[in-house]
Write a structure and sequence with these properties.
Shape: elongated
Number of helices: 5
Structural class: mainly alpha
Strand content: under 5%
Distance between the termini: 27 Å
């Protein structure tokens, strides 16, 4: 399994780059809307649902999927609401 490296090496590379004032303003204006964030979360959940075992307990599936989204930086409320709606839409009532 591959993991993204966010250790000290990644920090030094990012830390060595200087952002100008216009760069920081530009990146701040490119934030996603709440609808875009929920769409991205739903895509991740749908992809993960394909790999989860069908006999998996519903509570365990919720914990795994919310944890996945939390590790990706989604808020707890967004993660939980997206997971609940995707589980209902996919008939995951195990």
């Amino acid at each position: 399994m591959r993991r993204a490296k966010a250790g000290p090496r990644g920090r030094t590379v990012l830390g060595g780059r200087a952002l100008g004032e216009s760069d920081s303003e530009e990146s701040a204006s490119e934030t996603d809307s709440p609808e875009d964030e929920q769409d991205r979360a739903a895509e991740l959940v749908r992809a993960k649902l394909r790999t989860l075992p069908r006999g998996l307990d519903r509570d365990k599936a919720i914990r795994r999927l919310v944890g996945l989204l939390a590790r990706r930086g989604f808020s707890q409320s967004t993660a939980y609401s997206v997971v609940k709606s995707e589980l209902a839409a996919n008939g995951f009532d195990a």
